[in-house]
């Protein structure tokens, strides 16, 4: 048990460092950066205490905000993604989630892809709405959210496959 | 009472979510108002140190291009010096009591640079201990970069010209009309100059410089050239697209400018109001 908590804390730190030191500098096509720190939210245990999960996600987002000088946009996006996770899990896995028998490491590709996509899209829509902070520019928001989501989903699926052994 | 407590307990996750969301949105709104984004800032010891460490690894890879830029700048400054000394040596007498220039320059390295977001900031490795103060202008050898917005002991944050809160006075090199410089968030090499009155005579390729009306930048620092222009809807102002001299995606090192007369000018301006 304590071992798995250590794994989560380690993942928290590694993801923040990787995001702010490496991935925020990719700037593919000028402005595209994948936000793979969302893996922390994706891989949190299914039966985690929800209050604790909300607070942890808030701090995850806040760390990214402090390192990226972005106010509180990542914190808000993480919170929303965390809050809607039960609904996404139910949509993606249906009954097996209700009976708490889902093992994130033993998912079929389709289910895993659905789960990642829904979470990433929710997260990115909130993120870019707040970052642009002006609904007059809804097209810019949607464009950025769409392309960044594609990039993030691709990176996240690759990372989940590569590090499958360490998943809990 | 019992019911209220029950209600709170039942909805504690939702209430916690709303509370944290409001905090996060509060930080966001604060970051959108100029001169107030102090709470969430990368100038703190931990993130400053982290980025300095990252910069210390990365800087070896562009030593050649940095050297090249320094050589070009040296050449330019030597030429200026020759002109200046040729001017003064013969006839003019230097009045030593006013010889000190009103501006001082401080060098700094950029350790983190943003340009892909809507509101971009730059982190530099000099802070209050190196006499960097809030509201100092920041330039490179080629042109302006931004304004110091927040300082800690060893780091300072620059609000880049690529930021929706940035408002810098800029004017035409060959006339006295001026306007304010904005960024529409699209291309990191193009900024927009608004509110140049229609009486101004402009054409593509004209140089845009700082106007020297504010106390932040001295007059005549380069910004860019006009690449395109249109009139606004009621034909009273130009909307000008300016191509920056600086490559904002590759800044490297910068100079912060201190205006020694800033206090004096500001006092006079407030008296005026």
TrEMBL record, chain A:
The chain crosses the membrane at residues 113-133, 145-163. Keywords: Cell membrane, Cell shape, Membrane, Transmembrane, Transmembrane helix. It comes from the Bacteria. It is found in: Cell membrane. One of its GO terms (cellular component) is plasma membrane. GO terms for biological process: regulation of cell shape. The keyword Cell membrane applies. The keyword Transmembrane helix applies. InterPro entries: Cell_shape_determining_MreD (IPR007227). It is a multi-pass membrane protein. Belongs to the MreD family. This is Rod shape-determining protein MreD.
UniProtKB/TrEMBL annotation, chain B:
Keywords: Cell shape. Residues 110-257 form the Rod shape-determining protein MreC beta-barrel core domain. GO terms for biological process: regulation of cell shape. Pfam families: MreC. Involved in formation and maintenance of cell shape. Belongs to the MreC family. This is Cell shape-determining protein MreC. It comes from Aquimarina intermedia. The lineage of its organism: Bacteria, Pseudomonadati, Bacteroidota, Flavobacteriia, Flavobacteriales.
